Amino acid sequence: MPAPPVFHSAPKIAHAPHIPEGCGVFAKAPYGAYDGHMSPRDLLNRLHDEPFKPFRVRLTNNSTIDIPEAGLVVVGPTSAIMPVRTMKDEIGYTLVTQWRTIALSHMMAFVDLDPPKSSRKRPA
To answer: C-alpha 39: how far from its chain's center?
Structure first.
């Protein structure tokens, strides 16, 4: 009888130094090309930032995908499953109703999303 499979929890990811806001992940090479590709660790580091800040992923075709919560992304060695459309259930949990699998090599940069503007005015 074969031995049952052994499952291990994923190791903790060491955080890379923070990339300054407004900067792309990679330095731009001549003629608008980028000199590298996104690694799984780049995306995992951003997803595990404390505190988590919602962000936008800019892709090579100039489209974007917003990441409002860290738990909505599944990261693999060469691609990630990312939310395209979400909704809240009756309790307030986020459900992903549409998703895309994106190659990490098509991810160019992370951009912080601004928090929603409050409709309340500041007291004068």
So the answer is: 12
